[in-house]
Amino acid sequence: MLLEVRDLRKVFKGRFVAVDGVSFSVPTGGSLAVVGESGSGKTTCARIITGLEKATSGTVTIEGERRASTVQMVFQDPYQSLDRRQTVTSCLTEVLAHHTTLDRAGRAARSAELLNLVGLDERHGPALPRALSGGQRQRVAIARALAADPKLLVLDEAVAALDVSIQAQILNLLVDARAATGVAYLFITHDLSVVQHVCEDVVVMHRGRVVESGTVAEVLSAPSDPYTRKLIGSVPRPGWVPTREVNRVC
Amino acid sequence: MAAAVVCVLVVLLALLAPWITPHDPTAVDPLNAYAPFTGDHPLGTDDLGRDLLSRLMAGARTSLAGPLIVVLAAGTAGTALAVTAAWFGGWFDAAVSRLLDILFAFPGLVLAITVAAIFGAGFTAPVVALSLAFVPMIARVMRAAALRERNLPYIEALRVQGFSGWHICLRHLLPNLAPLLVVQAAIGFGYAMIDLASISFLGLGLQPPASDWGLMIANGQPSILAGFPQQSIEAAVAVVITVVAFTVVAERLAERFGGGVR
Amino acid sequence: MTMLEFDHLRVEINGRPILRDVTLSVAAGEAVGLVGESGSGKSMTVKSVLRLLPPGARATGTVRFGDTDVHTLDGAGLRRMRSQDVAMVFQDPRATVNPVRTIGDFLTEVLRDQGVSRSDARTRAAGLLADVGVDHVARRLRQRPHELSGGLLQRVVIAAALATSPKLILADEPTTALDVTTQEEVVAILNERRREHGSALLFISHDLELAAAVCDRIAVMYAGEIVEILPADRLHEDARHPYTQALLRSRPGTVAPGERLATVPGSPQSAFDAPAGCVFADRCPQAAGLCRDVRPALLPIDSGLAACHLLPRETPSVA
């Protein structure tokens, strides 16, 4: 296993339990979705795995040599996750200079390759983020994360803020990028329908706990947990009729 | 636009003063005291017959250098304090904030006057004291902006990339705060100029025969009673025009940069 | 009977078009979904009903509510329309409710304004909350917005919107900020209450499936124009415009796992950036020469209307 998360627990301010005994694992080159709604603790898990937050207890083990670039992350908001003063090329070469021993020419060549991989080209190199659309910015963010040559990419609601047609482009791109680089994905999302395109395995989180896990095909076609069933049932689809619960649970 | 032109002109005059003053600003000519406005003395002369235009131009040097040093020193110290406080957060940030609040409550001008009275009048003591007094003013604004900036996802993205705090602060945080710092410095410049002129006026700044503008206003006082107010008025007008010009430029910059955060 | 009608509505802000040509009607009691991506002008269309356009905006064409042209209303008429006849529900309930006043104050304010007595207003407010599925009503009335979750607060906003039994409800992405399970509840409530009051609904969404579940008809917008209108229950069968089809195909739930999603090249355009002919021509995979230069009219096809040169027309008709 590339990533092993065991009994992860996170308590904020000594009271609020955001993550409560969560375990899951991602195989090398695999793709795991962590699905849940706001307050489920999925984002806290992601932040602990990327080192942005410290767990109260539990372990996160990453296979092989531990280097800063092993785990990388793509954030939800493509408008704020890039430095507004930094050009696309400078953003990529900065990462390359930090994580690789490439010389100037090597970095330039590699950043052109990365742009190509995410469906951008050299014309976008000198552009500042404000000259790019949301989808293009998210492509830059993905290229930046891949520049460090990570083994695991954590995608925190990375397509949630995008328009439907752009979301489809980015989902396809993520599939291609995994095939091209062999990177594993940890896909944090609230949207079950997005999961089946990028992931093989899924864990469903609710109020800090894992309520169901398995392969995407199993969980989506035959959910066993009532919450998972409710979540799947809430996704608008052809012939869907929204209903309100009688017992008025929020 | 006009304000920016005035700023540039004043700075140029100050820089070039030693070479372009029509007369020696300290040359006494008692026979020519209180000369009217003529081609030779466009702004007249003072009680000792010194050319007022030359004295204003020469005085511009110290009158601008003082606030410039204050703003540079307070800007550097204030921003450094603000960024470290925002970056580390927690008790360090809380301690810095409280300290700034306390310093902020203490009027800068009074502090500067006290220091000048203790350590002796001159250029250095008031400028150093005022620099200290301006740190909380700049640091408070910069800390709020740095905190906002620090919480933007791109900073987290850089942390996940494994960049050091130094690298992120110097290469990303500071450049993004720079526009706001320029605005703050321009506003501070106006305040510092008035404060330093006040100190000079009280006799705690530069001493005669220097021609600092605040000092010129003070030295012109006896002549007002004699019916020749031009020295005080001209020096006061110089202060007002410069302060207004810098403040207007600061406002325009603030509008353009929108406080530094989009 | 037509409750709301846009007739060749065009809105420009400082000379830049935001809406190019919007023609759409909503019948009394009918629910129409206005679907499009960012920049398509769907929010601006709704705002033009209440004349809530930003400064510098200039609208031509007409927006009729009942039989009054909205642009001719005076201050009093406009206020009457805003306060009684038309209700609006926004995306972010927190931005809509005064954060320092209680939920009770918020709900009774409208009723008190119409001369309902204080105690009656309290009772009615409690009833309204119960109707939208809010529990512990007495306590909720005393609470302030920050003490309620987003889903609860949006129900409160819907309760307030329905308090005056408006003839028309304008809902601008009312569930976008909510979780999916909460979205289902809120949409169900909105739907149920609307039918009870017989109000018409103009429902804005970026989600075709959601709009189809709530509405009778769907209007698809792109770059300031409506490109297709069709019955909600025929959405998947009868969608004929390339843009609508692209939207339907790009939704991840609609194709088998592992298959590639159909994508539209480029990114959503605004009315200002779109080509002079068909607004979608720049991104359309089938665009031909005619598409870029000549504006297609919204013409009947199958069960709906579509604006596309490439569709076969049964009888050559003139718009």
From TrEMBL, chain B:
Keywords: Cell membrane, Membrane, Transmembrane, Transmembrane helix, Transport. Its main location: membrane. PROSITE patterns: ABC_TM1. SUPFAM superfamilies: MetI-like. The keyword Transport applies. The chain crosses the membrane at residues 64-88, 100-119, 125-142, 180-206, 235-254. It is a multi-pass membrane protein. Belongs to the binding-protein-dependent transport system permease family. InterPro entries: BP-dependent_transpt_permease, MetI-like, MetI-like_sf, OppC_N. PANTHER family: OLIGOPEPTIDE TRANSPORT SYSTEM PERMEASE PROTEIN APPC, PEPTIDE ABC TRANSPORTER PERMEASE PROTEIN. It is found in: Cell membrane. This is ABC transporter permease. It comes from Actinoplanes palleronii. Residues 60-250 form the ABC transmembrane type-1 domain.
